[in-house]
Task: inverse folding
């Protein structure tokens, strides 16, 4: 009867409260959106080389420069693609070499600055999208001063508001084994999502025209570092780290 029902519900309420509490703790610790931490903890820095992709009819120096530790990427909406016959839009991007991957946990770190006048541009991407979905696993766009994430073709999500006009610290972690993508802005986790991309991946940054672009697009970067976490990781001497434009070729 009613008394028996109330007795059963009374016993279930504490269990329900425990499960709810456990779920909150799990979400906070595993996903942790809005939490501040060191995203590079447990990772090992990896040496890399890079190349510069730019409009095919321009010299590298016309669209890219490196001075006092700052990588400067520039492109116009009227520029050519990066090779003849390409149907892609104009870009000037740094492409990480030597570390294309299909497994493991990888991280891109760097500081970027985008002027408020720049919009409609991708400033960072994890190349290698899911088959039948698109060419990229993740793209980070500047749209009307905000940073927007496009995660392997899923609906866009705002990662940070009013991101232009100041230096911003970025960490992007791609767990290719667990199929997840995480974005940290100034060491705060602001984006976490599943990512089932199954192609070979690599990191890029710079400027790559997207929808409704400004006529001139520019992003500046510094302190670019590549990290890896795996059982096969190994230490690399500091003098092997690629930190100068001499490692980037046109």
Result:
């Amino acid at each position: 009867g009613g008394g028996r029902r109330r007795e059963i519900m009374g016993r279930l309420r504490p269990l329900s409260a425990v499960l709810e509490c456990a779920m909150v703790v799990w979400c906070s610790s595993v996903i942790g959106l809005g939490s501040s931490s060191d995203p590079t903890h447990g990772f090992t820095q990896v040496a890399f080389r890079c190349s510069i992709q730019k409009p095919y009819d321009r010299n590298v120096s016309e669209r890219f420069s490196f001075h006092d530790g700052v990588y400067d990427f520039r492109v116009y909406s009227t520029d050519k693609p990066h090779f003849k016959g390409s149907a892609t839009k104009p870009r000037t991007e740094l492409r990480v070499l030597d570390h294309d991957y299909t497994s493991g946990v990888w991280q891109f770190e760097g500081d970027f600055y985008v002027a408020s006048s720049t919009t409609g541009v991708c400033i960072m991407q994890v190349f290698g999208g899911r088959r039948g979905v698109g060419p990229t696993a993740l793209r980070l766009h500047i749209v009307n001063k905000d940073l927007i994430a496009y995660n392997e073709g899923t609906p866009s999500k705002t990662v940070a508001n009013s991101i232009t006009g100041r230096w911003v610290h970025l960490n992007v972690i791609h767990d290719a084994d667990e199929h997840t993508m995480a974005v940290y802005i100034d060491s705060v986790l602001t984006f976490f999502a599943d990512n089932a991309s199954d192609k070979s991946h690599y990191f890029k940054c710079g400027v790559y025209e997207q929808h409704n672009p400004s006529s001139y697009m520019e992003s500046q970067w510094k302190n670019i570092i590549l990290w890896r976490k795996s059982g096969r990781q190994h230490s690399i001497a500091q003098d092997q780290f690629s930190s100068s434009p001499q490692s980037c070729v046109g």
